[in-house]
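Lecture 7 notes: from sequence to structure.

We start with a single chain of 381 residues. Read the sequence below before looking at the structure.
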Amino acid sequence: MTPSPSVWRIFLTYLRIGASAFGGPGMLPFIRNRLVDRLGWFTNDEFKTGLALVQSIPGGPLVQLAAYLGHAKAGLPGALAAFAGFALPAWAMITAFAIIYQKTADLPAMLGALVGLKVVVVAVCFMASLDFLGRYARTAMQRGLAGGACVLFLIGLKPFMLILGGAIIGVLTFKGEPRKPHIANGEPQSWKTPLALLGLYVLFLVGCALLESPMLRFALSMGKVDLLSFGGFGAFPMMYAEVVRARGWLDERTFMDAMAMSQVTPGPFLLVSAFVGYQLKGMLGAVIGGIAVFAPSFLMVMAAIRMKDSVLSSDWAHKALAGVLAILSGLILAVAVSFAKAVDWQWPQGVLLVLALAALARKVDILWVVLGGALASALLF
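Now the structure, written as tokens:
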């Protein structure tokens, strides 16, 4: 394996990865190829261990994997460099979209493009729900959990209660094989770093509290979304529930526009928080949104690194996660239904939906589907 890179090189490497990370979890093979095969920073087993760990905890899996791998190369500075490098391009692009949206949302071309993007978002959500159902709701019990979660979310039950219930049901009823213990390399790591980071997070929240309302509520709300999101697309229902239903910071139409724009940016979908923050308090809100939506899961990664063997070998943890993912399958479907109800359906929208679904089913890159939908609708609507 090559010598450990500098923190600056780690940042630049992940900045490049983050700038091209379109398609969410579909980027994993590309990331693995660059870090394992081309740069030789990790073995395949090291990469797979990091991926297994971050998939066992909430938050955006790709940005958490960046933090985990950065930490493996250069400790906390490496984790921060990788985390920031991966997230920065998406944050910059979604913030730029928020600025443009606020100034041009009433222009005919923008309105036409957004009509098509909303239809594409419906298609993306439906395909994401089918993907989750295929992966995480294979048994009758899991499909029942998904269907029940969909119905209960649509009638107004809070997603936190559904996720908690899914975790409990998973632990009590799902069958699982005990995991093999993962043997740690080196001495146990100190908890001083996670505790110091927790202190910094508290100071960040205090700073938000000193600003004008609703910045503290916004930061706490985005942290809640982060801690209840699993598997990339799992962020959709959590963000929708907080931003539209619980807080009313955006109406459903504007939220759909924000989610549509997130599809043409690289990196984590959670960074819709920057769009929401900009609508609330300009650039300061966008910065707070970008930090608040990742800080809790970054802390969790730093803690998980120190309990890696326990997390990866825990049968209870894997069964609870299976229950949560089944619930999220239903929640994503519920959000797709909610988005579909918000579209003014006419025959052009119906044709565009069919074309988008067909393209996604044939594994066309989501970026091209989104751009094609925007272009077609800008010309037609």
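The CA atoms of residues 203 and 209 lie 10 Å apart. Keep this in mind for problem set 3.
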